[in-house]
Amino acid sequence: MPLSVSLSIEGDTTVIELAGELDAKTAPDFHQTIEKAAGHGTSTVEIRMAGVGYMASAGLRSLVFAQQKVADHVTIKVVGAIEPVSRTIRTAGLDRSIVLSDD
Amino acid sequence: MTEPASEQVLRVDAYPTHEVGGYRVRAGKPFPFGANVVPGGVSFSVFSDQATSMTLVLYKRGEPEPTAELEFPQEFRTGSVFAMTVFGLDHENIEYGYRADGPYDPVTGHRFDARQVLSDPYARLIAGRDVWGVEPDRSRGYQYRSRVCLQDFDWGDDTPLGIPAEDLVVYETHVRGFTRHPSSRVTAPGTFAGLREKIPYLKELGVNCIELLPVFEFDESDNPRSNPETGEKLFDYWGYNTVSFFAPKAGYAATGRYGMQGDEFRTLIKDLHAAGIEVILDVVFNHTAEGNEQGPTISFKGLDNATYYMLTPEGYYFNFSGTGNTVNCNHPVVRNYVLDCLRHWVADYHVDGFRFDLAAILGRDLDGTPLHNPPLLELLAYDPVLRHTKLIAEAWDAGGLYEVGNFPAYGRWAEWNGKYRDTVRSFLKGDPGITGDLATRIAGSPDLYSSRGTSASVNFLTAHDGFSLADLVSYNDKHNEANGEGNNDGGNDNASWNCGVEGPTDDPGVNALRTRQMKNAMAILLTSQGVPMLLSGDEVARTQQGNNNTYCQDNELSWFDWDLVDENSELLRFTREMIAFRKHHRELRSTAHPTGQLRDSLGLPDISWHGERAWQPDWSPESRLLAVARCGTGDDDVVYVAMNSHWEAHDLELPALPGGRSWHLFADTGAEAPHDIRTPGGELELENAGKYLIGPRSVVILVGRTPDAEF
Questions:
Q1: Do A56 and B254 touch (CB under 8 A)?
Q2: pLDDT of B622-665, one tens digit each?
Q3: A93: closest chain B residue by CA
Q4: pLDDT tens-place string over residues B335-390
Q5: What does the DSSP assignment read for B346-372?
Q6: What is the distance in angstroms between the Cα of A90 and the nearest Cα belonging to chain B?
Q7: Closest residue to B258, CB basis, from A25, A56, A90
Q8: B415 near B458, Cβ under 8 Å?
Q9: Are B35 and B96 within 8 A, CB to CB?
Q10: How far apart are CA B495 and CA B499, in angstroms?
Q11: Is the pLDDT at B5 greater than 70, yes or no?
């Protein structure tokens, strides 16, 4: 299933909404969007992942990439990830630097 | 972000030159070995000296049958290395292996069989055993599937801790066993992630190094036995049967099913480092999971049997490991393989050191002869990448080579000191004729390591192999019936004593004695010179119910029961304070062996021996009492440790102290908790300065300091 990626700004938050499968094939689209988001200069980048049914390790690397791209003071939030996806993020240790929330 | 055109470098090797089996390919780079992501594709490189042809076998992830088989063109072979870059692969979703064709002639050592798909010896990930204990589909032809792995973990500012060896307090544990018990209450029991949740416990305990039983991919289901009483399947629980040397065990990762075991393990190491705790891996290079002639063909056996294994002139496997085969460690190709493997774990996983299982084998020549100057051991000692890692040898093997004290060290290698274990155990149970040897052991075994310093001696009383500490004081004999080997497995020479009753008892006197004996063990271990190593769970009296060889027991015999943290908080507190005490007294951690020479500043020798009378140790065969006073560099305190394994109390005359110092009580295992031990710095000044009554089978620790000394 392809990945759809959308980008919007809501106040001081840049919102990236993902739906589909985040794997090695689709991650480059996500990366391009992260780069755009990093350029917006908002204090928060919120990645809405409720529509992501599968995330391969490429997806985790994308989140690491996002951390490296945004400025130090920018908060990255992952919102609405289904349990298998959020568990993967937690067990890989990314929950220490990325805010995981249900909604 | 795409680089500006002017800054882009046109790489010719990003383009194919050939087509094989419908895939665009070009000759790969022979080095590095393994599967490595390169621009546009994946480069595969594998060594085989005698193969006549080599085929790369590609699978879609999880599919039973290959999607492609690509034979290496002859022009892609450099020397004995086959290397090919395949373009357009989705490296995340492929598995791969090799078919090596060549002679099948066991007498000359060759066992090529092109029907077999072989794992890559350099595979960074292995699929096929992603979740612990899931019964594999054995009808599949290719069980242990090599996978491609990116090495792009974000280590942040993680750097090696570089803790001096003499300052280490090592904690030997098992990734699964540490948190698999339901009482652990972690989110991912039995995994790297679960262990990570217990870092605060380790930090509070005070250990600064964990030594992990094998974490390289092994197959826990390769044990054919079952429990004769219950019929339950037995496992290869410990994991000393390596399938793949570069791959972390997927079944130890909550994310193993996603192929994320590498990052999960790295995250654990990164967080341990942040907590001030180093990581040592127990590595097994003496044998592999391929066994002997009857064993499976997984990798080495089919790729280059005659290079990787020590073979008899008839082509059978030498068995110095006791497990069927012996790795040909000092063959030049295999030496490099071992070196590459260890470099990988240091550079890509930030591991701090290694403990080598049956390391005496690493000093044997191609035909098994012990070498005077083993090139592998020298290579590892001087390697630039491994330069500051800890190298610890289990300095014996199953072929009868026992090198404790004689292991070729090159100024780098330390050893598990089996003589320390045997002597202190014997003293604890009250054997006669031990005090002389006990003195040598607690002073850092100068008889064994005179030129290497005290930190060459890793002191331990218990390890995974043998009784736990609680069982050491609860059983005279091993009780290994659950292993299904008729109680014939495991060591018989345990130097254990059950304190009067074999196994569990309600007798409060016996239980009190056992607790005291465990405290005695901790007190002696943690005040001995050398590097102390604790077995995980001993600090809370973990029992294996008398089983001294739980290699196959994936159950409560092996798991850390976290309810014991509360139930045995008295022993836990004692251990914690003893570790803190060691950290606060540099004289216990001196790298130099004591000489008995006077120290100018205090007018006391660096070490002195005492008995019931000060300055008069009793070395006679019937003596079971020894006291030692240490006065070292860096601290102005004097530490006095009296050890009484006699069943009667004794009056101790204490040595007089210079400079207005007086004796303060830190620990007395004969006292009821909470008076058995104090917090370092909070020692209680003795009222009767010259004497102390040491109880039966007790250890007393005093500190000689000025009453108002700031700690």
A1: no
A2: 999 999 999 876 567 899 999 999 999 999 999 999 888 899 99
A3: B267
A4: 999 999 999 999 999 999 999 999 999 999 988 899 989 999 999 999 999 999 99
A5: HHHH---EEEETTGGGGGB-TTSPBPS
A6: 9
A7: A56
A8: yes
A9: yes
A10: 12
A11: no
Helix axis angle, B569-584 relative to B508-527, nearest 10°?
20
Q: Kindly indicate the confidence band of residue B522, based on its pLDDT and cuts at 50, 70 and 90.
A: very high
For B112-151, what is each residue's pLDDT tens digit?
Answer: 999 999 999 999 999 999 999 999 999 998 999 999 998 7
> Which residue in B231, B307, B313, B292 sits closest to B46, CA to CA?
B307
Identify which of B30, B60, B48 has the alpha carbon closest to the alpha carbon of residue B99: B48
B150 part of contact set with chain A, CB < 8 Å: yes
Among candidates B487, B438, B454, which has minimal Cα distance to B625?
B438
Chain B nearest C-alpha distance from A11 (Å): 26
Nearest-CA distance from B157 to chain A in Å?
13
Chain mean pLDDT for chain B? 94
How far is Cα B40 from Cα B16, in angstroms, rounded to an integer?
Answer: 9
Catalytic residue flag (residue B357): yes
CB contacts of B250 in chain A (<8 Å) are none
**Cβ atoms of A32 and A66 closer than 8 Å:** no
B91, B196, B268: residue with CB nearest A24: B91
For every residue of B110-170, DSSP letters joined together read: EE--TTS-B--TT-SEEES--STTPPP-TTSS--SEEE--------TT-------GGG--E
Bond into B674 cis (ω within 30): yes
With 0-12 / 13-18 / 19 or more C-beta atoms within 10 angstroms meaning exposed / middle / buried, residue A94 is buried
A interface residues, B as partner, C-beta within 8 Å: 23-25, 35, 55-58, 60-61, 64, 67-68, 87-88, 90-93
Distance of residue A55 Cα from the nearest chain B Cα, in angstroms: 9
Q: Residue B24 and residue B35: Cα distance in Å, rounded?
A: 16
Contact B654, B693 (CB under 8 A): no
Chain A CB within 8 Å of residue B381 CB: no
CA-wise closest residue to B56 among B113, B119, B149: B119
ipTM above 0.90?
Answer: no
Q: Which of residues 276-335 of B touch A (CB under 8 A)?
A: none
Q: Does residue B1 have a pLDDT over 50?
A: no
Report the predicted TM-score, pTM, of the whole model to 2 decimal places. Answer: 0.93
Which residue is it, tokens 């003293």? B427
